[in-house]
Amino acid sequence: MNLKSSLFLLLALLGASATTQAQITYGGTPFHNQELPEAAALPALDRDALALEDVVTDRFKEAPWRFGVEHEVAWSCDQNGAWTFEQGHKVWRMVVDAPGATCMSVRFSEYHVPKGGQLFLYDAHGGDVLGSLDHRNEKPWGGLATGVVLTEKLVVEYRQPAHIESMPTLFIDQVVQGYRLLSGWPHGEEVDRGPFGNSGACNINVNCPEGATWATEKRSVALIVQGGFAACTGGMVNNTANDGTPYFLTANHCLGNPGNWVYYFNHESATCNGNTGPTNQSISGGTLLVNSGQSDMALIELSNTPPADFNVQYAGWDATGNIPSSTVGIHHPSGDLKKICFDDDSPSPQNQFGAAVWYLDQWELGVTEGGSSGSPLFDQNHRVIGQLYGGSAACAGSVNNGQPDWYGRFDVSWGLGLSEYLDPSGTGSLVWDGYPDGAISFENDASVNLTGAPEGLVCGVQPINLEVTLTNTGTNTLTSCMLEYAINGGATQTQSWAGSLAQFETDVITLPTFWSQGGTNTVEVDVTSPNGNDDDNVLNNTTTVEFTSTSGPTTTVHFSLLLDEYPDETTWELIRLGQVLYEGGPYEDDQAGETLMESFCLEEGCYIFRIFDDYEDGICCEYGEGSWSLMDIAGDLVWNGSSLGTGGEFGASEQFIFCTDDISTVETTPPAQLQVYPVPAHDMVNVKWPATQGQATVRDAVGRSILQTHVDGLQTRWNTSTWPAGPYTVEWMGADGARAVVRLIVTH
């Protein structure tokens, strides 16, 4: 096998964890032999340097809350520690000494024990114990990450009955030395080793009276311990199949390897003032399904469905993007017991550091901290609308400091991959209740969502086709409502809708085609009068989309990329005036040999194209025949006066500079405006013409002309009651040669 490095094989094996076992322990106690082998010592920590690094993380929550330092080691039961014979068992022990540590954990890159073998991790001084672990804890990829043990001197003890001939494979490649304490962990007879890990005094235990109405939703929230050295928060979320698939939502910035995470459920005090909680309800490992920095979102499928005694709830969600009237956060600040916080005001949609977020000005009760990152934000209907991205909210003594937080928006994440998993059957629903316990519902409640808006910059004037998804989010069957829409600040158009939608069923309504205008384009749709009544929940009645179209002359450049055998090494970017306008990569392994195409819409000026290879051997020619090219609209290679815009044979990177005045362009003339409404039409349709004179043609789905007429005036009304139901196009040709086309749907 011709591989670039044996490292690739190792990484592939470590990353192949599609499923793992729950980190369930199986009882028993270690032998606790006091004659321990000589300890392996971890280096002393520079606590002052660590404290300086933690200041930023703890304040702004833009990275996991760190409580330990990772040490790379190479220890095995064959080469390290000592074997003994005790009580009819073969026993192996290894001791790790880290004076002053608050806790420790280990990661086995290889973990295999025969049936009958038992593994324990415990405090050498007789305190905390983790175990036993046995063959049922093995993972398909061969490794195992353990939870934390409260100790500064850790004993790893393995035993098996003497008659078992096969021996274990235990290889430790990482040890975590804790320097801050996860709050709420039982200390036994030990005292708390300091204030580290204890959240601020203004935090509110989730089981205080303030959280009484959130007893259902709190069950979805879990503490994440990342490889035993850092902490975040996340929550279980439901899907439209209501099938209990263990989907877990957290923040993108929390990501490492979810396969090495431990997810602790119900880590909370049973009382308002309690300071300890259970640590034995955990799932070890998960698989990353989708993530994006655009909304700071990561969706993980846990390796195992939480057992029934965990009493987990899969939270409902709202992907409409409608602004809630109030919000609630449930989280684990600084790795502490589960807390709750309240904001009685509406958040505002904003952009923070390139991410679409809900901006919360301040909390009225409670607060968040480092470790709260990734925790769900609930609206007043008890549905998830985001996850914590960052902010400066914190306790100032026993009170809130009055600073803001921001949460990645669930509605933006929906279009970035969440919908594929949370709406597996494609219902189109944008609001969903929790499972098995639902969220607050309303009798007459209709919601709308706009889709089809262009992503990124629209190149020049283009036809735009948007669809409105109407959802019955009420408990009563929806039989009628009114829709109002306005395009780019134009006159409001009104149309009625009639049908029959059970709760969470949807109908898709196509808006008339319109043409983009230079600058910002805005479309707003409102739904009112569900079943002829006032809407019981007005927060999901409005949906708005915005996109930007170039206002001046533009040039279209086509980018083609043929990937080599290692697409994960390839990235590229297109830059103007120091700003990255377009970028791509790294790509997935299964894309090797694929040709990817992308078009760039460029305003007048000069640009830099750069392509990179992490392995520094280009994309041709030893490991595949990869190449790239830039072509103008005519299909000719872009030329900058000295070299063709194509390549592939380079080291770490190559760069290509070109200017638009060297490239072939095609002029675009703004089209005339044509409107038809209502859409869908039933018995009648109104047509607004761009000018008083012209010729109109209506064609059916296969292109047959069913109507041709001369236009004389600005508005026409057609009887569509005899037209077969289906899609049509309405084409208008003006006397000056101007042309416009819109789509029409007829239903009966």
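[next item in queue]
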Amino acid sequence: MERFAQEGLDFPDYPQLIMTKKSRDITLPAAHDNSYQPYLRPVFSQQGACCGQSASVAYNFCYEINRLRNLPSDTSANQYTDHFVWNFMNATTPYYGSGVSYLHTFDILFDAGTPTEDVYGPITMNDDYYWMSGYEGYFQAMHNRISGANSIHAGTPEGLLVLKHWLHNHLDGSAVGGVANYYAGMPYDPPLLPSGTPEAGKHVQIGFQENASHALTIVGYNDSIRYDLNGDGLYTNNIDITGDGITDMKDWEIGGLKYVNSYGETWADSGFCYMLYSTLALKYGEGGIWNNSVHVLYPDTAYQPLLTIKARLKHTKRGRIRLTAGISSDTARFYPEHTLPFSIFNYQGGDFYPGGHKLESDKTIEFGLDITPLLNFIKPGSPSRIFLIVDEKDPDNSADGMLLNYSV
């Protein structure tokens, strides 16, 4: 999915959502909280540096797809693992040994999907390198995917209003609102909302650290929470407290968003926390969030894979191979006329066996690939030849492998 440069943004991003007529006619309540919806899974503690995938898949995607399917998110059959997408990018340059941006996760959700935890393994699995083996697991993942993603530039009052409508009514008048992701440098111990104010005693972020090293999920808003940022004994939104000569959203001391973290129930308020609206407007690196933007997902519950590949591959260094599918209308050709790349099995995972461990059995992996887009090149009533192409980059000639079998 393409990200591109946009006016007012420091970094390329997905297309921005704007206010819809249907939402503009809706009067928002002063507070809204989706953490009480059955679609938000229980708070959990992430295993490893997978915050981007915990936020985007285990919280956001899980919530949004279960809302559409009207399923509760309290059972492994309806919960989605963060490690399936994370482990494809983990140990891959430049992410080796550290976190993986959820922007890359969205690409995997778009063309490969993600399996449920009862198929892949629980959210408590602490394994940074495991790749799932078994066609049925990949085939199930193909049914759990997104059709796209959008950004909301939330650093202005107009953008904040769009975000609040997304949280309240999905910008389409829905009875149930949505959730959203963002990146920020998050202090571990946020201060408390003052006594005598709404939600007093609960935690609130009043500014973020310089580097966007953590991903989180916004679940609601509250226009009444407040914090005295400049220590003048007042709670205001109309005084220039930053000293830049402008009174704008950066100066707001009243109002904030509620988000859920992946640090377990012992963090902050049973895993939840507030953040002031002003943090959305502050410049990134100076207390604000990455790109002053949040991201939303659109699960595709109608999609059905119509053409797939089932294959078994043996290799000693998975990060040195790339899989591509292809098709030719001339069955005598040895090269495809059209090719289809994938966001998985794409020079990923480092110099490990495909299974992620050192057992002999980990050298072999069975998987599935959705090649439905190749149907666009098949002429009705005419034969076609389907290709599975394995490219290898092995500069020191130290890897060994073979395609054991594949079928369509």
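[queue empty]
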